[in-house]
TrEMBL record:
One of its GO terms (molecular function) is polysaccharide transmembrane transporter activity. The lineage of its organism: Bacteria, Pseudomonadati, Bacteroidota, Bacteroidia, Bacteroidales. Residues 1-17 form the signal peptide. Residues 43-144 form the Polysaccharide export protein N-terminal domain. Its main location: membrane. Coiled coil: none annotated. This is Polysaccharide biosynthesis/export family protein. Belongs to the BexD/CtrA/VexA family. Residues 150-228 form the SLBB domain. It is found in: Cell outer membrane.
Length: 265
């Protein structure tokens, strides 16, 4: 009797495990080992409203760059020509915030429209304005995002809004940070919703094919929304299978417990 009960319990556990086992997806099915595929190394994020930018101006004569780097605090030029920030002890918000009109207020140069520009375009604009104003000859300008973010929703293991350093984030990066697609995901229908000017556009990516590398949504832009579509039709069947399997296991376990308790008494 005990042996039979053990067999029943073992069979039930195997049945339940088969219903809940993790599913593996086959990505990039048409890629060929050894074949080379071009990489877009010139990808740049586009500056948008509510972005926060770290903009630094450098020069061979550090003291000339000081007025352009005063943002949220003062600066001190050392005897060796180095420039150090001087904190006044107050909490200061870093970077230049892009307002709703796509503008920033930049020292000396005033209001600059950077919304809709790529990082290199904004950098070149600031550098040219500094040169044209005869403030600095051959200035070096660097721009970095301080709050690059995107949102991942749908059939993933960890829904949320993610903030990252830098601006070179791929669709695979975003999904990996979100724990990957869940067992109920359609990896051939990954939607990316993007703000383009005053409109929103949606792109569809298929992770099963190498064509995803050429998709306009392979590299994410600021504030993108990644939505992984679930398998709605199969979702109900899978959930019912899980519920039935769990119920059966509970019933069998209860029956086995009662029989064992009865046999002992």
């Amino acid at each position: 009797m005990k042996r039979n009960l053990l067999i029943v319990a073992l069979f039930s556990s195997i049945l339940l495990a088969s219903c809940t086992g993790p599913k593996k997806f086959l990505y990039l099915q048409d890629m060929v080992p050894g074949e080379k595929y071009p990489v877009n190394i010139k990808h740049e994020a586009v500056i948008m409203s509510d972005d926060r930018l770290n903009i630094t101006v450098s020069s061979k004569n550090p003291e000339l760059a000081v007025p352009f780097n005063i943002h949220g605090g003062g600066f001190r030029v050392g005897s060796d020509g180095s420039v150090d920030a001087v904190s006044d002890g107050a909490s200061v918000e870093k970077g230049y915030r892009v307002d709703v009109d796509g503008n920033i207020e930049f020292p000396i140069l005033g209001t600059l429209h950077v919304g809709g520009l790529k990082v290199s375009e904004a950098r070149d604009m600031i550098r040219n304005l500094i040169e044209e104003g005869n403030y600095i000859k051959n200035p070096l300008v660097s721009i970095e995002f301080l709050n690059f973010r995107y949102t991942v929703m749908g059939a993933v293991n960890s829904i949320g809004t993610y903030r990252v350093e830098g601006d070179r984030v791929t669709l695979f990066d975003a999904l990996a940070r979100a724990g990957g697609p869940s067992a109920k995901a359609k990896i051939d229908k990954i939607a990316v919703i993007r703000e383009v000017g005053n409109d929103r556009e949606m792109y569809i990516a298929d992770l099963r094919t190498k064509d995803v590398f050429n998709s306009p949504c392979y590299y994410l832009q600021q504030n993108d929304i990644v939505y992984v579509e679930p398998k709605y039709l199969k979702k109900d069947a899978e959930d019912r299978g899980w519920q039935i399997g769990t119920t059966l296991l509970s019933v069998i376990t209860a029956i086995c417990s009662i029989i064992w308790a009865t046999s002992v008494l």
